Amino acid sequence: MPRLMLSNELWSKLKKILLQHAIYNKPDLRITVEGMLYRMRVGCPWRDLPSAFGEWNSVYKRFNAWSAAGKWLNIFKALLVDPDFEWVFLDGSYAKAHQHSAGAASDQSEAIGKSRAGNTSKIHLAVDAYGLPIAFEITGGEINDCTAAPQLVAQLPSAEVIIADKGYDSESIRQQIKAQGAR
Asked: Is residue 94 part of a domain?
């Protein structure tokens, strides 16, 4: 059995949130969620998901359906309990995309772009003073930090201080931060 992430205490709290967001309480719900978390943690292809989590295709289909319906984003927002907005930190990080990941037949942006490293996506993340995520934007890897910053800063509630590296150093971003009442 692969290592699991959720203790009984954490699962009891997460299960309540899942049920509040119209996720059906099937008997295998916990092991399915564990399978999703395992796959996100280790980065394996869905087909290589250990059989202890159930049929890989079933876990993938649920994950995909929940993502498409916006349920994961709503769960993410529900987990933000009492954030500390005294300081907010911004930064971006690249995630390498598989060579066959680009070119899907879809009208929506896949957030995959060409950068020095090949096909990449970039995660622009804001965390609170505890280091817990409070907002994020996902763009193609060719999008720099100061281009994605206005949308990320606009998602932030009344932070006292916003801290970022020099990738966010532009006068327009500083003005936006001041207009929101932060330093």
From this structure: yes
